[in-house]
Amino acid sequence: MTAVAETVEVTVGIDIGTTSVKAIAVDAHGEVCARTRIPHAINAPTPAVLEHDAAAVWHTGVIEACDSVSADHRVAGIGLAAMVPSLAAVDRNGMPVSPGILYGDHRGHHPDGEFVGFLRSLEHAVPNAHAYWPAQAVASHALCGAAAIDGVTAMTCLPVFGADGWDAKWCDPGKLPDLAMDSTSIGERDDAPVAAGTVDALAEQLVAGADLPGDVLVICGTTLITWAVGEGWPEAEGLWTIPHLQPGLAAIGGPSNAGGLFLERVRALTGDPAAELTHPDRVPLWVPYIRGERTPRHDPDLRAALVGLDVGHTPADVLAAAYEAAGFVVRHHLDLSGTNPQRIVAVGGGTQVERWMQALADVTNLPVDVTAVPEGAARGAAWLARITAGLESSDWAEARRWAQTGRRVQPRADWAEAANLRYPQWRAACASQSEAAQ
Q1: Percent of the chain clearing pLDDT 70 (strictly above)
Q2: End-to-end Cα separation, the chain, in angstroms
Q3: Which of 65, 73, 240, 377 could make an SS bond with 15 (beta carbons 3.0 to 4.6 A apart)?
């Protein structure tokens, strides 16, 4: 008789990304026991619009992803993460009846903040909606019947969220999700407690291991996010500063549109000329603002441009320039940050693109430690699920024990030298493009 292996107890982490829903089942040591990725479309017919089919992605896609990785495992808890801000109108059953508006959409251009802009837009478009929920709340309701967000997600809803919770000045609190300000379970799915949804960037940070001054966390997703770790509270014009999980430290940086959204658009134009060789001195310059920029320029009207293209350039050169531009954006954030960067910790789905990782090392002239598990936000959500399930203490900093480097990418001397010469030209080209937009 063949012995039956004991079923492994896992926690499930789900990340609603811009172009896919990712879910993993993780054991007590942080090892991935099951994973799935459900790709989905984003609706971006113009640079001003960015939205999801919220019913398909935030609701149905999340259920499908969760059930896929839960099969054949004893699930001890479920955690959720998603991008911010986001918002959709929902009916009494919690099903979205509007598109899910995403960060950077023109409907967020409001003097009182992006979330207020989203809320006012949906109130006008769907005035009879039962409620207005971000992606995390739609997903949690789909899984366990309770629409809730954690305190970190709530903070991104300022000023609608205040010191005493939802401020009725802005909206009837009954039309907004519940607030879960601690790790208590908000409900259950098949007897597994469900944690309130959190911010994807926080979930990434939890398990990345970028915990020392000089570490730089670079989230290589559809959005490119740079966080340089420094002592005290470093500040710089155009950048954001947030608390770090480690005492006495903060992270300075912010998001950019020069991530996968830009790079995949360039690849769609060039194809994938993997067989062609590019010389380090034969690379043009991309101004990567394909739909405006967030930090440090904060201008939704900026557009991309290819500078210095000549008759000798190949598709491989143009693609190499795109990866280099993404690296230049990271370097620009680091130059402004006032920190002393020593290494990059790269996380996110883009870490599987070797050319992106190599360009990041070459342009910054820093070693890049690439995470072993690309689904970092889902993994961080799985850690939070362990807290909700009572399997870990409430000290988020303990999650660093799950940090795991898959490989280190070193700068190439000839490419680093060439990129260093191009960097001032790139800065000038970006500044010129910004002046032209004004």
Answers
A1: 98
A2: 76
A3: 377
